[in-house]
Amino acid sequence: MVDFEMAEIVKSLPFNYFSGIDDKVAAKIDAGEDVIDLASGSPDLAMDPAVLAAIQLALTDPSNQAYPPFTGKAKLKQAVANFYQRMYGVVIDAEKEVMIVNSSGVSVVAVPQTLLNPGDTILLTNPAYPPYFAAAKLAQAEVYEMPALAENAFLPDFEEIPIEVAKKAKVMMLNYPNNPTGAVATTTFFEKAITFCEKYHIALIHDFAYAAIGYNGVKPLSLMQMGNGKNIGVELYTASKTFSMAGYRFGFVVGNESIISAFKNYHSNAYSTVPGFIQDGMTAALNGSYAKIESNRHIYEERLNTLVSGLQTIGWKVEAPQGSLFAWFKVPKGYTSETFADCLLEKANIAVAPGSGFGSDGKDYVRVSVLQELPRIHEVIDRIDKLNLF
Fold first, then answer.
1. CB under 8 Å to 23, separation ≥6 — which residues?
2. What separation in angstroms does the CA of 69 have from each of 75, 99, 317, 347?
3. Is 376 exposed, middle or buried (CB count within 10 Å of its CB: 0-12, 13-18, 19+)?
4. What span, in angstroms and rounded, lies between the C-alpha atoms of 270 and 292?
5. pTM for the model
6. Bridge partners of residue 143, in order along the sequence
């Protein structure tokens, strides 16, 4: 067999961070171990039956055997605009300010490719969702890391960015509710981000993957709700979390017309279209009832509060996040994120994600999901208690 060498840019990429964790968990399960997986980010709650019915019906529609429009069906783009009006009170132009994509994972990679030239600077938080760094590498961009630390509620301080860096920056990527920290953006924070980006002519990209998941009275804010949010940036949205449709790989982007136009051009060349039956199902989801969204959010909230209160009771001084599907827990003294994650997996069969995989500022944390039913959450607390770590 002839051995071919991969391109240098691909060689420079780390293999998907979460794949390695999945492999460890799978090996334990294959060995007959009862592993409770709190490392995964795949929603476990059911989607709305009405949406599933719409998808099943769309599968039988002969028109969906053909290629759908490159930029998405018109009725779907209008449904996106309707959704933003209903959820956030924001007016979105369905044709000029909406882009349909094959999952927000695609847009995370594609937006930097669309807006950055080799050598340009992108501003990313540390910690951050690992694919952001891979996306920057693929765009051959320089990364400036903005610390997002506990003392600042995991929100970066734009005044700490050197002027020479700000002048070179072309893109800023934010993500609130945040993965991995669970932090939620405030109006004041978004206003500061917008003012900073306007001053230096930086495209503001907001990954709104956990838009519908705020806890204990907190409702996550959309960048589009801010006065100049739509003028300076775009928002990436996914069906995975809001609608429990991770396997359908659907997302959209809304906002600044020039960014959307450029993105449409890139996407039409680099990716295929979203299958028509999925588009029809998403049209039903966006135009339909949001009751299932809220009921699922309530279940996640109950799980989170149970986990946090239980861990606090056994002596682990953890704090509850305000949103997302994750909690960001500081590890006990004497451990790093990796050694503590290994301890939980080897001694208690509990899988969590080491914080170091999200950036150097995650070295003292682990990311823990709320994607297990309540009895399993209670079991997690019991297993950790038996380790006598606190």
1. none
2. 11, 12, 52, 52
3. middle
4. 34
5. 0.95
6. 122
